[in-house]
Amino acid sequence: ERNYLGLYGRYNGVPFSTITTLSYFTYRQTPPDPNPLAITLQFNVDYNLSDANNAYQGRVVFEPYLTGATVLTGTWQSWDAMAGRGWWSSNPVAAAAANPTAVPCTQATPCTWAELVARYPNAGVHATFGAVLLKAGGSWAGFRGNTDALTIGVAGSSTTYDFEPVDRSGSECKNGGWRTMQRADGTPFRNQGDCVSNAKRSGEGDEGNADEDQDRTGNEDRRGHE
Fold first, then answer.
1. pTM of whole model > 0.70?
2. Rounded Cα–Cα distance for residues 4 and 105 (Å)
3. Is there a contact between 53 and 123 (Cβ–Cβ < 8 Å)?
4. Per-residue model confidence as pLDDT tens digits over 164-200
5. Are 45 and 116 in contact (CB under 8 A)?
């Protein structure tokens, strides 16, 4: 188990203004109610895709409870991340550098998606450190939860990511199946053996699990940088 799931390379350089759908489901196993926490949706952000600043600039984060909704334990809940408030910046300094006149989006004063785009019209998924993450916070003691059915739409074309258990045997690679499959970063497999090896390396049971304890392993590289 780990505390985040990531999509790398699939949305690099995509402007936020072209995103038309953002939704996903969460399920909290522990702690029990009342507790406001649910797995968050995060983007590695570039606040101005048009300028020369290609440094890592932090993330924009969607926090379900900041919408005003009640997060429940023991039930699946659906979140439309483009409706209502809930977005905040992990690096307000980088945001201010892109637009000094904009009111920052913080956990205390979260933005709607429309407000985020209006304040930073050239913002988007970072072209170099691009990542879309579903993540439990590092300080969420005792948190265990799941996530599923992440839907991202760009210019009206949507893709849903269904986090079912991974087949570690690589059986789906056989009988030519490898020809229609790809790695998590979107690159194709060279042959059946390459596909099977990848399945055995990447299989981790229920890919929808998120566990706070994994945040202390230090396994996150630049793509998963806080």
1. yes
2. 23
3. no
4. 665 667 787 888 888 867 665 567 889 999 888 887 7
5. no
Record the tokens describing residue 127, joined without a space: 């072209």
> Which residue has 């995103």 as its token pair?
19
Tokens of 10: 């699939």
